[in-house]
């Protein structure tokens, strides 16, 4: 299967540059994956498409201020670091700019010296393993010096960090937000529950590799990144009971869907556990558990576009994206949403 089959044209002005206010006022395209039928809605109307007995599954990861700006100890040259995931208590896998100069042994300084670092080694994907040292709590210093890791297509800063967090985020560790969840407000979630829809939460720490375009000509040659997940027994039981009772499993975001499919057996039963997943879902994949998916509009040639194409069918997604472009929907992280049912 060719990567270029998942390419499409998007005018730059359709790339959302800031979050909408209130969160649930974004647009919502509802796509029937069986018929290809589409409806245009406002996000708050998602309640009309959920029914008693369904389970809405959320990823409660929290984005860390993962971008750090510092300087080399020897030359004073500027350095930018993006934290990807923690390896040990004081070492992280990172991306470094400029990367070619980040040789093992290079020392770095951040802020007024409150945080120091040393490059230990390179990774297979061009990243660096970096060891940090500080005189106080690392998380406190990161909160002080770090910047929210907005994607490069967002050209303006974010005044309120919380707008790049879901209202239900809990456990810190992501380098990017699970953006489908950004549309929910506490009031909307309460209304959904009042209608007999239950909510389950799981965890997947989102890495930036999720959003990067696939470079290989054949998508089967793409090497998927790994991300940490955790599914507790309470969530697994709630999901499994839903399926036994004939309810639908509605995944909020591709990260949630990937986690559920990772921990589901061939019968569609979710098994609690934790670990690392590198599941790569593209057309031809047979879904085991998820019935519906809430997602945003994704980048060309990305693994996320391949995933939604697998879920709804490539033709349906292609038509839906063309329709969204013609109707001036907003795309990507702060953009509008799509509910695939």
| First-to-last CA distance | 25 Å
Tell me roughly what share of residues is in helical segments: 10-25%
Strand line-up in the sheet with most strands: 2-1-17-16-14-3-12-13-15
**Helical stretch count?**
6
**How large a portion of the residues is in β-strands, by DSSP E?**
25-35%
Q: Structural class of the secondary elements?
A: alpha/beta
Mean pLDDT: 95
The biggest beta sheet, please? 9 strands, mixed
Task: Produce the secondary structure layout.
Layout: E1 27-31, E2 38-42, E3 55-59, E4 61-63, E5 67-72, E6 78-86, E7 91-97, E8 107-110, E9 115-122, E10 128-134, H1 138-145, E11 171-174, H2 186-194, E12 198-204, E13 227-231, H3 233-244, E14 249-252, H4 254-263, E15 273-277, E16 292-296, H5 303-312, H6 314-326, E17 337-340
Parallel strand pairs: 1-17, 3-12, 3-14, 4-11, 14-16
Antiparallel strand pairs: 1-2, 5-6, 5-8, 6-7, 7-10, 8-9, 9-10, 12-13, 13-15, 16-17
Helix pairs in contact: 5-6
């Amino acid at each position: 299967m060719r990567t270029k089959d998942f390419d499409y044209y998007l005018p730059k002005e359709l790339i959302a540059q800031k979050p909408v206010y209130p969160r649930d006022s974004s647009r919502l395209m509802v796509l029937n994956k069986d018929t290809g039928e589409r409806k245009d809605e406002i996000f708050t109307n998602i309640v009309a498409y959920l029914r008693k007995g369904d389970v809405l599954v959320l990823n409660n990861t929290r984005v860390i201020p993962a971008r750090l700006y510092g300087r080399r100890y020897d030359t004073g040259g500027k350095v930018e670091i993006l934290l990807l995931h923690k390896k040990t208590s004081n070492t992280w896998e990172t991306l470094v700019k400029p990367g070619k100069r980040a040789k093992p042994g290079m020392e770095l300084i951040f802020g007024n010296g409150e945080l120091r670092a040393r490059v230990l080694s390179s990774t297979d994907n061009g990243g660096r393993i970096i060891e940090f040292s500080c005189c106080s709590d690392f998380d406190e210093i990161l909160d002080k010096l770090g910047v929210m890791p907005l994607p490069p297509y967002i050209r303006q800063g974010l005044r309120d960090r919380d707008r790049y967090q879901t209202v239900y985020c809990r456990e810190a560790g992501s380098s990017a937000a699970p953006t489908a969840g950004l549309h929910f407000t506490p009031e909307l979630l309460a209304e959904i529950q009042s209608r007999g829809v239950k909510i389950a939460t799981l965890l997947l720490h989102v890495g930036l590799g999720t959003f990067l375009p696939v470079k290989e000509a054949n998508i089967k040659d793409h090497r998927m990144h790994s991300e940490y997940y955790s599914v507790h027994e309470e969530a697994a039981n709630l999901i499994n009971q839903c399926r036994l009772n004939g309810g639908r499993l509605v995944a909020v975001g591709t990260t949630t869907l990937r986690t559920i499919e990772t921990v589901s057996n061939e019968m569609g039963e979710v098994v609690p556990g934790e670990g690392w997943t590198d599941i790569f879902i593209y057309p031809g994949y047979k879904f085991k558990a998820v019935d519906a998916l809430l997602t945003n509009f994704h980048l060309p040639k990305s693994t996320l576009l391949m995933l939604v194409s697998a879920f709804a069918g490539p033709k349906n997604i292609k038509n839906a994206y063309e329709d969204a472009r013609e109707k001036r929907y907003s795309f990507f992280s702060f953009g509008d949403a799509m509910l695939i049912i």
